[in-house]
Amino acid sequence: MTVSSDPERVNPLRDPQDRRLPRIPEPCALVIFGVTGDLARKKLIPAVYDLANRGLLPPGFVIAGFARRDWGDGDFENVARTAAMEHARTPWREEVWARLAGNFRFVGGAFDDDAAFDRLHDCLNELRDSHGIMGNAAFYLSIPPAAFPTVLKQLERTGMADNAKSGGWRRVVVEKPFGEDLESAKALNDLVDDVVSAEDVFRIDHYLGKETVQNILALRFANSLFEPMWNSKYVDSVQITMAEDVGIGTRAGFYDATGAARDVMQNHLMQLLALVAMEEPTTFDASEIRAEKLKVLRAVVPPKDVAAETVRGQYLTGWVGGARVPGYLEESDVPPDSNTETYAAVRLTIKNRRWAGVPFYIRAGKRLPRRVTELAVLFKKAPHLPFYPEDVELLGNNQLVIRVQPDEGVMLKFGSKVPGTQMELRDITMDFAYGEAFTESSPEAYERLILDVLLGDRTLFPDAAEVEEGWRIIDPLEDAWAGTKPATYRAGEWGPREADEMLAREGRTWRRA
């Protein structure tokens, strides 16, 4: 049973607010461009299997692949089966795969091959009759950003992205990075708007599909405990950290032209900042949530003194996880004179009444001691401590820490008396872990996001204005950094010493993630 956007086809037995039955899309096709790439093989196809395993796909669901391969439908199905068996989150069940078997289609060709796109157009028309997809299809652009314009223009030429011509809905899914600066992002937004309507564009930021990121909204707006203190009167500072223990792997071509700030700060970390700083929406509607996030991003003030309020770093040879690893300049295919940053730290402020005077420290880096993404709200210290100074030496700021990955959960840090005859105080923590509190494991981000695309739910997808505001913040930094050399840090360290000094000048330290 499904809920249709057409009022004449609404299921009369189904209340949209009834959560006892899962949301299931209408019969449709998911078309993946670049289906032979790592993203499709390790994330997208396994996510489709996991959705099927949870009973969240319609019987008339078809997955179509497009790539430069001389494959038939059976070849693609075999490749997809192997990918799902190796990377799916949920247990393998033959009966689940049997329901998907036979629902795979493959079209081979290059992105500039008109004949191949004509064949894809004919394939979707045939599926309307054979699988009852009623013209519904989502196009997932799992391809390099440089190929976006070519594929979009092919969709426009064939009319495949036109809802009226298809007789159903057509949606386009675009992976980050969406542009490489503000100018290119605007050009790409204009192109997408020419091809498909704004409400049918889904810009994927997979961080927004993570349960703990969505829990930021629940934590703030479902409880009366935190919101009264969620402002400059009580908050000293906010730290957002995205640390990776890995290097660049085989992504040298992309990464050396991009760097840490463009790769993750403009999108992932700006979205986390918006969620933690936004005002309460009037409803939990996609347009209301995005409106509040956009207000925050427009109020963000880039550093006035880039040299003092930002730090770029590049890792040297060092030790991570007990193994010796090469420096960035020794990585395969990296130019020996590269000035690309593998670490970036930025101090931002938000120009509104709630956050006036509160610094937001954002950092991201590779080859750090461990993999962790977290948001830490550090509260101001009590204005008066009626204790002997030596009894409170180990007492720090109260902290609320939201762990996005890998140990998803929430931690509250506060002061408590140490057992004994003296009034000695030190920090303790109360910890909530998703894996321990709930019997059901959290779905992969791509599971939630693919399902939302097929349902047409845009709550977790940034719109064009949000993307452009992210570039408005990052572009001045990139301009100031041009031609400068990044500071260095050894692999296995928490970034350059200059990043510690940036906070030390204001009497603060980075939270040890």
UniProtKB/TrEMBL annotation:
The keyword Oxidoreductase applies. It comes from Catellatospora chokoriensis. This is Glucose-6-phosphate 1-dehydrogenase. NCBIfam families: zwf. PANTHER family: GLUCOSE-6-PHOSPHATE 1-DEHYDROGENASE (PTHR23429:SF0), GLUCOSE-6-PHOSPHATE 1-DEHYDROGENASE G6PD (PTHR23429). It holds the Pfam family G6PD_C. Its EC number is 1.1.1.49. Pathway: Carbohydrate degradation; pentose phosphate pathway; D-ribulose 5-phosphate from D-glucose 6-phosphate (oxidative stage): step 1/3. Residues 31-215 form the Glucose-6-phosphate dehydrogenase NAD-binding domain. Substrate binds at H206, K210, E244, D263, K366. SUPFAM superfamilies: Glyceraldehyde-3-phosphate dehydrogenase-like, C-terminal domain, NAD(P)-binding Rossmann-fold domains. One of its GO terms (cellular component) is cytosol. One of its GO terms (molecular function) is glucose-6-phosphate dehydrogenase activity. It comes from the Bacteria.
